[in-house]
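User: Please fill in residues for this 565-position structure.
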């Protein structure tokens, strides 16, 4: 079927469903899903870091993939717009459950290949998106357009349907300065899409509270240049997130300008800098020192230290405390924090600041007055103006961010019926260019990642950790004759985090008696079973301890049946 411009379009009876499996009313864990009839398009697959008080050993949180696993034969493609954790960190966990083609930028493609090789993930093709690409993916044309963000090659995308385009603007800012082509946005495509007809525009909301444009307040060049001018004879340690490529390039360019030698401290950072050669980033070899020479490096060396989340700030603390083998931190050294304090790392950041001040070191936090490269109010208004969508869906952010984003659309003349605020799992359904329903259809559960392999942590495990962290543990051991079931050893009672034993010996005495009496009673009644008896002991002792201490510790009874022959 063709439209009035003689262009191919899909069936007019198409049904479009748009929903998020993460990223709404939260920071991170972003994943948007667009269904056009039978085709499923997944946009982003990010992680979220847990709040400090809720972490309980959890490293990060990913989406509930149940719906995608059940419908994986319908997935047309996965779009990773750039290489940040809140966009692609969950991808390996998703791809261990499904097989689908992935479309991403050149640098992000290298990062994904590296992760997949490490995790031994096979069976999926990774396609590299170039500027102004258009591809038929599934039954529909997908138009890609470049935007300016902290990661080279970042893009937005538009899925063509019979009802109009469904557009995700990507994470972008307006920046018209002289940029390398891999960072330069192009809004002519956005204007063209708006003229052709946009049904729905999805835009991120994290910067919706900020007035004006983000640029030029996203840059650290001026501030870091001042640091280099004032520390001509000081060693400088700079913290930066490995994935903040734009910021890393700013730091490198400042060092080149001031002829300061550099050490790229981690292997991961050195690999990233090597990849930047593909983007015409050239560093004089005389300015790059090997990390093994850090003790012999000149006084004016700049040591660039990259990492992720909490681990980065912990590394900086270790340096200040002289707990890093190859670095001797002195009062003349300067620590520069060029990495923003993201949710979930605040406590570690404050601890790092304390450690540095205790060592009488100098710390300069650049990011307190520098904006992250996410669209502010005027940036969002510009995209709305160019796209002219029939419907607007704010995505990616806490609820106040989503609300402020919706207020921007209201200010531009959109009616409340055209603005859709969703929850994770809530599905907006469109037919014949009209919003037909907006119902909660998916019951989602956060999936906790504990280390590299133990993902999908059960709630009972987290509950156990919470109990251990607040009420402690009591371990009881006793030995029985395997045949007669008479007590021949113990009981031995150990507690951690519950009571100070010398002040409460009566408790351990009573607990030991409960343990013995329960076993003897079961043996006498001929109802003894190791597992059943242990459960009965646990219940009785838990009730006793709550009466005595008002705590509910973890109680772990151990009954060893010993063969004396």
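Assistant: Residues filled in for all 565 positions:
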């Amino acid at each position: 079927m063709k439209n009035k411009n003689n262009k191919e379009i899909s069936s007019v009876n198409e049904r479009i469903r748009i929903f998020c499996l993460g990223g709404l009313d939260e920071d991170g864990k972003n994943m948007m899903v667009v269904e056009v009839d039978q085709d499923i398009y997944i946009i982003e697959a990010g992680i979220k870091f847990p709040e400090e008080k809720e972490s309980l050993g959890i490293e990060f949180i990913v989406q509930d993939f149940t719906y995608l696993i059940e419908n994986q034969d319908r997935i047309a493609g996965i779009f990773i717009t750039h290489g940040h954790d809140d966009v692609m960190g969950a991808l390996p966990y998703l791809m261990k459950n499904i097989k689908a083609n992935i479309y991403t930028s050149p640098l992000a493609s290298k990062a994904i290949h590296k992760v997949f090789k490490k995790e031994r993930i096979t069976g999926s093709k990774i396609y590299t998106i170039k500027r102004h690409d258009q591809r038929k993916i599934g039954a529909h044309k997908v138009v890609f357009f470049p935007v300016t963000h902290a990661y080279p090659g970042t893009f937005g995308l538009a899925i063509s349907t019979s009802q109009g385009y469904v557009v995700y603007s990507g994470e972008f800012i307006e920046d018209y300065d002289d940029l390398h082509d891999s960072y330069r946005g192009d809004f002519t495509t956005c204007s063209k899409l708006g003229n052709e007809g946009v049904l729905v525009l999805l835009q991120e909301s994290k910067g919706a509270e900020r007035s004006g444009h983000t640029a030029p307040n996203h840059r650290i060049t001026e501030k870091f240049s001042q640091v280099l001018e004032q520390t001509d004879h000081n060693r400088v340690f700079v913290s930066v997130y490995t994935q903040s490529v734009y910021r890393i390039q700013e730091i490198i360019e400042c060092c080149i300008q001031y002829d300061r030698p550099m050490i790229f401290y981690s292997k991961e950072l050195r690999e990233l800098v090597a990849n930047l050669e593909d983007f015409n980033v050239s560093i004089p070899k005389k300015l790059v020192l090997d990390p093994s020479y850090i003790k012999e490096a000149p006084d004016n060396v700049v040591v660039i230290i990259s990492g992720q989340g909490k681990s980065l700030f912990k590394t900086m603390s270790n340096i200040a405390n002289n707990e890093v083998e190859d670095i001797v931190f002195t009062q003349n050294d300067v620590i520069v924090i060029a990495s923003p304090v993201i949710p979930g790392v605040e406590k570690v950041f404050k601890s790092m600041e304390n450690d540095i001040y205790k060592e009488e070191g100098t710390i300069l936090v650049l990011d307190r007055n520098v904006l992250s490269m996410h669209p502010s109010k005027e940036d969002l208004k510009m995209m709305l103006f160019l796209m002219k969508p029939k419907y607007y869906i704010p995505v990616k952010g806490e609820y106040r961010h989503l609300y402020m984003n919706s207020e921007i659309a209201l200010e531009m003349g959109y009616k409340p019926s055209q603005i859709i605020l969703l929850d994770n799992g809530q599905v907006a359904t469109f037919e014949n260019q009209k919003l037909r329903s907006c119902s909660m259809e998916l019951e989602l559960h956060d999936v906790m990642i504990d280390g590299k392999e133990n993902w999908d942590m059960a709630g009972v495990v987290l509950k156990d950790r919470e109990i251990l962290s607040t009420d402690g543990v009591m371990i009881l051991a006793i030995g029985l004759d395997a045949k007669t079931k008479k007590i021949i050893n113990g009981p031995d009672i150990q507690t951690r985090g519950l009571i100070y034993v010398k002040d409460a010996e009566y408790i351990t005495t009573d607990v030991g008696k409960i343990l013995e009496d329960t076993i003897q009673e079961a043996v006498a009644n001929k109802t003894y079973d190791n597992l059943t008896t242990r459960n009965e002991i646990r219940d009785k002792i838990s009730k006793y301890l709550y009466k005595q201490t008002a705590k509910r510790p973890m109680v772990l009874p151990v009954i060893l049946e010993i063969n004396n022959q």
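For context: The chain is about 30% helix and 25% strand.
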